[in-house]
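Feature request, filed as a ticket because there's no other form

It would be nice if the structure record came with a short human-readable summary line next to the tokens. Right now we just get the raw output. Example of a typical job, pasted below so the devs can see what we mean:
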Amino acid sequence: MDPNILSAIIGGAALVIGIVAGKLIFSKNTKKQIAEAELLSQNIIREAEFRGETIKKEKELEAKERFVQMKANHEKDVLERNRKINDSENRTRQKEQTINQKENNLDKTIKENEAIKEHLNRQIELVNIKRTELEKHQEEHIRRLEKIAGLTANEAKSQLIESLKQEAQTKALGIQQEIIDDAKQKANKEARKIIIQTIQRTAAEQAIENSITVFNLESDELKGQIIGREGRNIRAIEAATGVDLIVDDTPEAIVLSSFDPLRREIARLSLQRLVADGRIHPARIEEVVEKTKKQIEEQVMEIGERTVIELGIHGLHKELVRMVGRMRFRSSYGQNLLMHSRETANLCAIMASELGLNAKLAKRAGLLHDIGKVPDEETELSHALLGAKLAEKYGETPAIVNAIGAHHDEMEMQFVISPIVQACDAISGARPGARREIMQQYLQRIKDLETLAMAYSGVEKAYAIQAGRELRVIVEADNVTDQESEKLSFEIAQKIQNEMTFPGQIKVTVIREKRAVNVAR
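Raw output as currently delivered:
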């Protein structure tokens, strides 16, 4: 038992005895009370000793239990360590056995290779001997043939080569066409599957959207206020916005003419504010145009930020974000550039996912592929090369730079996502309803197709049908054979592919027909 606890108990008992004794002495009690007090004190001491013994035994039991538990834990740790050591020794022995086995196999392989090498050397010697004998027999045979045919070997060889060359060329064209058709069929089947899956999983938000170029008026009386005295107001608007205002006989409308859609939008909003305010004079015009420009710049940045957030693209440079916003006010063949870029980005991400590639990288490249169409300054570079230059300037990865520059084949494709961006750009632009084609350009393309086909000899007529998606070529049956018809179809298709620009694909059909007509009278 703890000595401090025991002394405390005894001290407490003594204190109780002293207090009782004192009370008995000072209260002048009888000897019987003194004896009772002594008996009480002895009982307290015995009880204290008994409690002390009980506490001592409890502490000893706790100490024994703790010792037993620590001993069991120690034995468990020792067993675990021994098991790990045994496992490590077993693995080491297995590795040694594997290494020894590999060494034995390597020795056997080396010996077998040496035997094979000796056998090959003997075979090579025999082949050299036989080749020498064959050359002698061949020379003798050539001399005999020259004597019989009356031609030298070179002359006979030239004639044979020329004959074989013509025959091989004809057969090669047929085989080449078969191989190309077979490869196209297989490639088109797989590509069609991926493209259909890609298109089915996305939908364009809108097909066509142009920047507004006509400002509608409530009445023709406002035209006079916009023109101003001696044309001061209209000149001030044109000077401030860089847009030509065409005021003609068109009722309740003013045409805004400018090559820059952003300027047209600034002019439209400025006119809208001026007409609503009613105060139209040069000072007010300059003030409103300046405010509108600031508003448009903020709107452009907001559109760009909202676009990249919606597409989940992060870490884009602020200038690139601003260019993305500028796409909202640019159109190409009637298709809004921002909508086209968003659609291309989604198509790229889905197609990359179908092919097991980096979808985020493909989506980023798809969004930025046409940033060269909205530069701050005009340059002589094409929009693809300019876009690649801008992307490189603002820290984009080489894969994205290459995808932007190569999507019109103006740069060599070096990364896997480059053809994906090119294909998705074509899908977005060539799908029905995406773009409009000017009538003059359409007619010129149809005319060029027919002219190209008529340039070949033996062609009697050529017709471009199905809006220029198919070219029917009728040849003269007396001058062109069936075999030459196949060759002509292939050559025309290749020339169209190399020299012309067209949406989708063009089917070339060569028709050779022989008619014999007689009349019975």
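Something like this underneath would help us a lot:
Residues 31-149 form the longest helix (119 residues).
Confidence is low (pLDDT under 50) at residues 203-212.
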